[in-house]
Amino acid sequence: MTEPAPASFATDPAIERVLLTEEQLRRRIEELGAQLTEDYVGRAPLLVCVLRGAYVFLTDLARSIDLPVEIDFIAVSSYGATTRTSGVVRLVKDLEVDLTDRDVILVEDIVDTGLTLRYLRRSLEARGSASLEVCALLARESADLEGLGVRYVGFTIPNDFVVGYGLDAGERYRNLRYLAVYDPDADEVG
Ligand code: PRP
After folding, report:
1. β-pairing, 89-93 with 46-51?
2. How far is ligand 1, taken at its centre, from the CA of residue 136, in Å?
3. Containing structural domain, residue 105
4. pLDDT digits over 97-119, tens only?
5. Domain total for the chain?
6. Which of these, 174, 52, 158, lies nearest to 107 by C-alpha position?
7. Pocket test for ligand 1, best of 88, 107, 112, 175 (most atoms within 8 A of CB)
8. What are the pLDDT digits (tens) for 8-28?
9. Which of 19, 105, 123, 174 has its CA 20 to 30 A from that of 7?
10. Model's pTM, two decimal places?
11. How far apart are CA 104 and CA 178, in angstroms?
12. Of the residues 12, 103, 109, 112, which is catalytic?
């Protein structure tokens, strides 16, 4: 039997510390939105949200862009933690919108090894879009952003296990309003 989750995130021992506050996230996402508004002026970009982690970022980013954006969702999955580095990613949910001649912005919560992004690029680049850029809220310091073609990044972060603002640990913590460092050893539930 697993323990019930702590009643509040504030008293959850697995939440080690706050890495990015709500305010820091809000400000940076407004900057990204302003940048995208400028870069895509006169166009109606299609924001492609990579489920599930990017769903919170997507909602705030989309509302920070002062253009008629369209939104669609894609979901991929890697075959478990142990095989992650083997490069096995599969499509779980495809887009519904036709990408032909569209200006596509792939919206990711985090670029870690880059495996997911490499797969998504391969998959989407074959679909005839006018352009394809990536906007990631977070990127690991170790990630090869240039090699992966990531044009827009919110924050570069160290290798800590982070949760909140869409990111999970065993499907929990996605609804945390800020980004926190998670300590698996202190988790009374997972
Ligand atoms: C996370 C995140 C990215 C991916 C990044 O997804 O949302 O899609 O990992 O890691 P990578 O650069 O090493 O490929 P995850 O598989 O945890 O699924 P989730 O978004 O549903 O939580």
Report:
1. unpaired
2. 11
3. 24-157
4. 999 999 999 999 999 999 999 99
5. 1
6. 52
7. 112
8. 888 899 999 999 999 999 999
9. 19
10. 0.93
11. 27
12. 112
